[in-house]
Amino acid sequence: MFKNMYKNSYETILPISSSFFDWMKNIQLNVEINLDNYLSSSNLSSMVAKPLYEVMRYSVLGGGKKIRPLLVYASGEIFCASEELLTRAAIAVEFIHAYSLIHDDMPSMDNAVLRRGKISVHVKYGESMALLAGDALQTQAFFVLANNSTHSEQFAQQLKMIAVLAHAIGAEGMCAGQVLDLIQSDALVSISLDELENMHQLKTGALLRASVLLGAYSGKLLSTAEVMALKVYSNAIGLAFQIVDDILDATADSSILGKIVGQDVVNQRQTYMSVLGLEKSKALVNKLCFDAHNALIIFNSCANRLHDLADFIVQRQT
Ligand code: GRG
Fold this sequence. Notes:
single chain; mainly alpha; 15 helices; binds geranylgeranyl diphosphate
């Protein structure tokens, strides 16, 4: 029986199965190995990129929960996706994520000195190298998605995946969300809940949504109803993920989180904590988790990994 059948109230927090954690560790390890291979300097045709590869490797390897690759694989499972395409999609979204973190930590953005328990990239290598490593990771993501030496019938899917990713992270996606965040923090006026949601859906939700869709597009053809269900699920977990992030920034311990906490207040960011407070923020996270489970009903037990990931995202402590 699948999870949402016995999850009848969003106030109930269900334990996540141990098989999920085994699956998660396996994917995390596999993704780390692939990231390492893709960023191996032995792949380079000339050594000119070696210094930049060192910075890219520092930012990408040895940390992070790999939530976006996990979403790719969990979604791909529903549509019998090919391992080859799933791996490319997982690497691509993690490269984009790493680029966004490097740029987000820079002095002109969040000015953060610690990330994943390590010194931020711009502090270790300087701003110029950090900027370029972020840029290079972004283009590398599209190279990984586009480059194909396997089956020609996958080309059309790859093209679609490239378009989905490009749209999610560009001027109408993740970058737009970051711009809204900066404008709203600079304006020093309170924002409405709708504006806050829109900002988070773009800044954080867009890449999570793209990860789910990329996994799905790595497999067989989707119906309109299936695409819609995945979008409703992704919107719910995308927003829940960012609200949990806001809560952790205000309540967690730096040594556990691996980054300096309390930065949202320092940077005068508008967050769910500043707008709704702790209790209402937690209640909203639970409601969104409930919505995410409900959206998956049409997939029956095929979506169990996506169900588990929704629970993991809302229960995470880092
Ligand atoms: C274009 C110069 C320039 C900058 C843009 C794109 C961008 C900067 C920022 C994107 C917004 C962003 C970084 C949002 C943060 C989302 C977030 C909560 C990240 C933390 O994700 P986790 O918890 O991290 O998955 P780990 O370390 O586990 O991978």
